[in-house]
Amino acid sequence: MERSVVIAGFGGQGVILAGKILAQAAMDSGLAVTWLPSYGPEMRGGTANCTVVMAQESVGSPIVDEPTALIAMNLPSLDKFERTVASGGAIIVNSSLIDRDIEREDLAVTKLPLNDLGASVGNMRAINMIALGGYLKATGAVTLEVVKDAMAHMLEKGGKSKFIQLNVKALDAGYNAAQFRP
Amino acid sequence: MGEKVLMRGNEVIAEAAIRAGCQCYFAYPITPQAELLEHMAENMPRLGRTFVQAESELAAISMVYGAASVGVRTMTSSSSPGISLKQEGISYLAGSSLPAVIVNVVRGGPGLGDIAPSQCDYFQATKGGGHGDYHMIVLGPSTVPEAGTLTMLAFDLADKYRTPVMILADGMLGQMMEPVDLPDPVDITTLPKKEWATTGAKGRDPNIILSFDLDPEVLKQMNLELQRRYRKIERDEVRYEEAQTEDAQIVIAAYGTTARIAKTVLRMARDEGIKLGLFRPITLWPFPYEALKKLSQRVQTVLTVEMSAGQMWEDVRLAVAERADTPFYGEMGGVVPTPRGILNEVKKYAH
Question: Of A86, A142, B25, B134, which is least surrounded by CB within 10 A?
Answer without folding.
Answer: A86
